[in-house]
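Posted in: Protein Modeling Q&A

I'm a second-year student putting together a small comparison for a lab meeting, and my supervisor asked me to include a predicted structure for N-acetylglutamate synthase. I've never done this before, so apologies if this is the wrong subforum. The sequence is pasted below exactly as I got it from our records. If anyone can share the structure token output, I'd also love a short note on what stands out.
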Amino acid sequence: MAPFIRKATVPDVKRIHAILMECAGQRLLLPRSLNDLYSRIRDFVVVDADEGGAILGCCALSITWEDIAEIRSLVVLESLRGQGWGRRLVEACMSDAVTLGLYRVFTLTYQVEFFNKLGYSVVGKEVLPQKVWADCIHCPQFPECDETAMLIEL
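Accepted answer (user: helix_wrangler)
Welcome! Here is the predicted structure, written out as tokens:
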């Protein structure tokens, strides 16, 4: 069976955590704790290799405020990179945003070129005060964040 995208479930959390930590070790994104993943599992979509639950990628849409959401924790295993799975994961999350009535979506990323190809534009972090005061202030990299803020209007 070919890989497919689906909503994440609680049994996926440990595998999502493993691939996020692997990619965080490569400085592709920031790490997430198991506790955070369990509490936000409804935000995630995954690339499933088969009905057995082998997770090959993931992405989350986190609601930040009444008019904006964030793409978080985008990962595709190296064996699937370059095949469009990252784009499909982000598009699934953006579709959820529109369904929820959210037409502005941002990300903080090291993957500027990837998001630029999806229509995101670089913005200053000062346009995301809700993010800064809700999450960034607790990050060990704050206030010296080296991620790039990007935004798309849907």
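A couple of things worth pointing out for your meeting: The beta strands are 4-7, 44-48, 55-65, 68-76, 104-109, 121-122, 148-153. The helical segments are 13-25, 34-39, 85-99, 112-117, 129-134.
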